[in-house]
């Protein structure tokens, strides 16, 4: 007897009943979600181009201008190059390194006012006991033929191919061969300008970031204290003007010294030294930012009561206390100080957006949103804009009326909701009511909020399994059927003691569909075949959707029989459109919302609606027609998706392809219905079963809402104008989600439609109306207030780069549907250059134009932007398939900030000096090959893949501890899990891998990569700091390019 499924779903953050809120009766207007809010007149024209992703700037991949002519010139330029956060100093031997200088201090403008919202926590909170989720040991499956060989493919990525050596867009000359230029610990780094003689160099790279010399610290600006201005300047790379008297310095075109970009570029014998130094400097900073945030913000709980306060980074572990604004687990903003007017916003080009994860799981030490019941008349709302009761409503006239914080309209307080005010104007029951004191809570919805004014039926799950030749052969059918027998006991439920009331149904298909009657009264399941797929209907109503416990025997019998029935199938063709139609029709017939789990293997070429042809054409890559590859090839699925949304039919798609299946088209329905896509290319039971099963278990068990509508309301002055994610919109305001699970995010962009005031700040309220898994109609409310500023410096002081990158990635990944990829890339570079140039121009103190000065909060913008630019979607290598690009494109669209962060900049953990006693993870190192020691072992993860890289010179003891063999040559590169050895190192390493996996929403298969083995090519793809095979720039090259772009904007 097998235990229950192992992959624990995330903690349920389901609402908790807040019982003291009594029922009442009154009339406060029925609250339809559909009616658009009436806004005050717009005083300002709204320009869609305000966030400009297409600019007149020269393209990113252009050839750069004429090089400086002589070596002497290069020498001079190097001589005047300066790296660090210091003010320009005279060039010359012995000039001071950046280390010993105090942080550059310009543009220190006092912070904007911080205002307290909500006040302290409610004095008493009911204790909450979290539902326990099933856990058990992993199960093994005898079913599924053992494969004869394990393909060495990357999950989600195509087979490796020999590296295609493409010239970097930056390097026109031969690659430098000189050694790195290491800043020496304890000694100032010497700039490479001493005539033609090189500085003393060591063969190895710069020191590990984590062990960086004190100079890194010296550059670091202390963390922001609440109420204290943070140091705005993180770093400067300067090229001071040429020193008079230097020999042979040729006149420069614009009279200005060229940035040392040129130096990096053309001064071949010094390129490497220069790059290493800059790389060392900035990447030290990169690791430092994350570590400092952990040290400074990880120990104290983050309280949300202070408006305009940026939360800890996503890489920091912290506790949240809700004091009136939504937790950053629910909402993260690009800017916590919004510009007061659109001119400022336009000037800065900083996107104004929020990444919202409405049903985000919470850690066990945080309280899930309370459930508030305002009685038969439903939640109290503003009469005009329909915003829900929240801490931003101001009670007036002794508590008889309230003024809306969003639209200023005054609304009568219904008698049952009346309460007296205290001397400060607050209701005396303020802290007893979540909706008056907290950022996030839920309302019970009334029948007015239900479709057709009818209380919804409990939702249903329908499993639709491809039983064509490929699906049977690769073991998928056997595995799914075996797993469902136990998994069905763990369907989502709100109360762990009560059985889930989600009903289930089963369909198998190849080019025809087989429906199963699994009614409890039957001795055996009955199959009904529908071969007319042109006009899909459900051949049985009674007995198709059943309660698991009632029909258990029949269901188990069916799941035992399916693999046998199709074991010898020769049918290779499949349909796909009719499969979704079948599930949709079944839900319609049962008059309920639900989710379809489709397990599919091949391109649907059988004659049927939604039939597809193979249109994979790699020749289109890089052309203006490339965008067509991301668009669906037929419109059938768009129409079908719309029908699914109307019914509340969410579709999750599990793909098991051996070749092109057209993910761009098959993904239309999942990505329009709030569903997920999982892809297991060249699926083999032996090596991929664990990943698939963990994904499936989590997907089936995870908390979710059905038939959801999300609306984001804002205070006067801004409005939500654009939305990114997996949903459907039939008007400009309502985000319709047939399903919304705990992993899905919706990114919302805001633009000005009027001026904002520093006094009131900007408010947003995200309301999600959904049906819970028990069939209850609810509203989840998240409130968020940010500051507004009239000084650009305040904007730049309170940005969150990880969220900006999340927004940029989603914007760019959507833009590839309509624009040539080159334009998309150019626009990204241009917008970031404008952001940084605006800061340089308006916020930084006067300094040499050659300096690259970055705002403290954005000093990592260039490094992360480069990762987005060189990602597989925007800069594909020869070895990535079109399906994988379409898959990644769709995946990124629903990522939260922590997922996008690690996806674009993977985490690389050194293990050779692992402290087996410590419970914390080792400090990460930069994603660069030069960080890898030949004697070391490293773990790399990006949320989808996890690699264990083993250096050829790793010590025998280390190998013995990990693999149980002292010989490098005996390590099996095909292993997908580490042997459970009885030593502290092995134990700790396996714990680390499990803890890393537990942080991600998808299971990551382990791949062991031996240095100099063929698999290393795949691994190196994730060393995003380095130049990539597909032409992606190294970080240093990109930084130089960025610096040039900024200088052009400034000149
Ligand atoms: Zn209002």
TrEMBL record:
Topological relation to the membrane, as annotated: Peripheral membrane protein
Positions with biased composition (Low complexity): 84-94
Segments of this protein annotated with the region Disordered: 1-249
Species this protein is from: Cyprinus carpio
Subcellular location field: Cytoplasm, Cytosol; Cytoplasmic vesicle, COPII-coated vesicle membrane; Endoplasmic reticulum membrane
Protein name listed in UniProt: SEC24 homolog C, COPII coat complex component
Domain Sec23/Sec24 trunk residue range list: 456-700
GO cellular component: COPII vesicle coat; cytosol; endoplasmic reticulum exit site; endoplasmic reticulum membrane
């Amino acid at each position: 007897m097998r235990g229950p499924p192992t992959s624990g779903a995330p903690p349920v953050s389901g609402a908790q009943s807040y019982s003291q809120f009594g029922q009442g009766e009154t009339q406060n207007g029925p609250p339809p979600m559909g009616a658009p809010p009436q806004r005050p007149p717009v005083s300002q024209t709204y320009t869609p181009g305000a966030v400009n992703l297409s600019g007149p700037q020269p393209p990113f991949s252009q050839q750069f201008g004429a090089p400086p002519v002589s070596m002497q010139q290069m020498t001079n330029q190097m001589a005047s190059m300066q790296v660090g956060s210091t003010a320009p100093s005279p060039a010359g031997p012995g000039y001071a390194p950046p280390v010993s200088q105090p942080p550059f201090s310009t543009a220190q403008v006092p912070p904007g006012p911080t205002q307290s919202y909500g006040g302290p926590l409610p004095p008493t909170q009911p204790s909450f006991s979290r539902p326990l989720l099933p856990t058990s040991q992993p199960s093994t499956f005898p079913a599924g033929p053992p494969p004869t060989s394990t393909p060495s493919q990357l999950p989600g990525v195509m087979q490796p191919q020999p590296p295609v050596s493409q010239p970097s867009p930056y390097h026109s000359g031969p690659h430098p061969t000189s050694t790195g230029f290491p800043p020496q610990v304890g000694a100032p780094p010497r700039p490479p300008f001493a005539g033609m003689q090189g500085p003393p160099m060591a063969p190895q790279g710069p020191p590990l970031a984590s062990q960086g010399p004190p100079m890194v610290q010296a550059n670091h600006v202390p963390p922001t204290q609440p109420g204290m201005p943070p140091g705005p300047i993180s770093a400067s790379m300067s090229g001071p003007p040429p020193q008079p008297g230097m020999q042979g310095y040729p006149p420069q075109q614009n009279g200005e010294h060229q940035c040392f970009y040129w130096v990096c570029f053309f001064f071949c014998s010094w390129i490497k030294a220069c790059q290493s130094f800059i790389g060392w400097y900035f990447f030290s900073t990169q690791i430092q930012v994350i570590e400092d945030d952990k040290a400074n913000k990880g120990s104290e709980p983050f309280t949300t009561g202070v408006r305009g306060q940026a939360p800890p980074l996503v890489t920091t572990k912290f506790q949240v206390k809700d004091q009136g604004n939504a937790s950053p687990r629910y909402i993260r903003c690009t800017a916590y100080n919004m510009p007061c007017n659109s001119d400022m916003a336009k000037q800065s080009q900083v996107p104004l957006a929020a990444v919202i994860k409405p049903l985000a799981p919470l850690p066990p030490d945080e309280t899930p949103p309370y459930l508030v019941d305002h009685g038969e008349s439903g939640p109290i709302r503003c009469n005009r804009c329909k915003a829900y009761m929240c801490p931003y409503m101001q009670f007036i006239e002794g508590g008889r009326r309230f003024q809306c914080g969003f639209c200023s309209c005054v609304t009568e307080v219904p008698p049952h909701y009346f309460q007296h005010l205290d001397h400060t104007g607050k209701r005396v029951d303020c802290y007893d009511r979540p909706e008056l004191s907290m950022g996030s809570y839920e309302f019970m919805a009334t029948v007015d909020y239900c479709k057709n004014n009818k209380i919804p039926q409990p939702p249903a799950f329908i499993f639709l399994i491809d039983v064509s030749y490929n699906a049977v052969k690769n073991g998928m059918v056997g595995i799914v059927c075996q797993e469902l027998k136990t998994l069905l006991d763990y369907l989502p439920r709100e109360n762990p003691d009560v059985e889930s009331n989600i009903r289930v149904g089963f369909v198998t298909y190849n080019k025809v569909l087989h429906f199963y009657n699994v009614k409890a009264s039957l001795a055996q399941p009955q199959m009904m075949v529908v071969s007319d797929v042109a006009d899909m209907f459900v051949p049985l109503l009674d007995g198709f959707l059943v309660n698991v416990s009632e029909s258990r025997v029949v269901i188990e019998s069916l799941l035992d029989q399916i693999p046998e029935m199709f074991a010898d199938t020769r049918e290779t063709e499949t349909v796909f459109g009719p499969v979704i139609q079948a599930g949709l029709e079944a839900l319609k017939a049962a008059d309920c919302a639900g989710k379809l789990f489709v397990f599919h293997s091949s391109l649907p070429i059988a004659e049927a609606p939604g039939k597809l042809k193979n249109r994979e054409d790699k020749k289109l890559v890089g052309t203006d027609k490339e965008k067509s590859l991301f668009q669906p090839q037929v419109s059938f699925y768009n129409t079908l998706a719309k029908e699914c949304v109307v019914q509340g039919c969410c579709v999750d798609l599990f793909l098991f392809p051996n070749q092109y299946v057209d993910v761009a088209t098959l993904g239309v329905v999942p990505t329009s219905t709030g569903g997920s896509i999982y892809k297991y290319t060249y699926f083999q039971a032996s090596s991929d079963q664990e990943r698939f099963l963990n994904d499936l278990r989590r997907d089936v068990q995870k908390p979710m809402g059905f038939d959801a509508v999300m609306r984001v309301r804002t205070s006067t002055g801004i409005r939500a104008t654009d939305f990114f994610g997996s949903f459907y919109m039939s008007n400009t305001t309502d985000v319709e989600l047939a399903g919304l699970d705990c992993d899905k995010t919706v990114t919302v962009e805001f633009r000005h439609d009027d001026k904002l005031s520093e006094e009131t700040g900007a408010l947003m309220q995200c309301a999600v109306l959904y049906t819970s898994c028990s069939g209850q109609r609810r509203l989840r409310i998240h409130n968020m207030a940010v500051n507004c500023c009239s000084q650009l410096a305040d904007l730049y002081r309170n940005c969150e780069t990880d969220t900006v990158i999340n927004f940029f990635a989603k914007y760019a990944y959507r833009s590839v549907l309509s624009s040539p990829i080159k334009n998309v890339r150019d626009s990204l570079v241009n917008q970031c250059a404008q952001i940084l140039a605006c800061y340089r121009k308006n916020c930084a103190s006067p300094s040499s134009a050659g300096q690259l000065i970055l705002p403290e909060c954005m000093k990592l913008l260039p490094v992360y932007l480069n990762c987005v630019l060189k990602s597989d979607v925007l800069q594909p290598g020869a070895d990535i398939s079109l399906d994988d690009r379409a898959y990644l494109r769709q995946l990124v669209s629903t990522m939260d900030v922590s997922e996008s962060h690690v996806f674009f900049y993977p985490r690389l953990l050194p293990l050779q000096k692992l402290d087996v006693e410590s419970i914390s993870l080792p400090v990460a190192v930069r994603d660069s090959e030069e960080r890898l020691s030949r004697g070391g072992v490293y773990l790399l993860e990006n949320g989808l893949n996890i690699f264990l890289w083993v250096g050829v010179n790793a010590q025998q003891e280390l190998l013995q501890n990990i693999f149980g063999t002292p010989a490098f040559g005996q390590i099996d590169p095909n292993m997908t899990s580490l042997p459970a050895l009885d030593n502290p190192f092995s134990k700790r390493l396996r714990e680390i891998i499990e803890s890393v996996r537990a942080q991600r929403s998808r299971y990551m298969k382990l791949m062991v990569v031996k240095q100099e083995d063929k698999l290393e090519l795949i691994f190196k793809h994730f060393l995003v700091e380095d130049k990539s095979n597909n032409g992606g720039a190294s970080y240093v090259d990109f930084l130089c390019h960025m610096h040039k772009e900024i200088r052009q904007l400034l000149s």
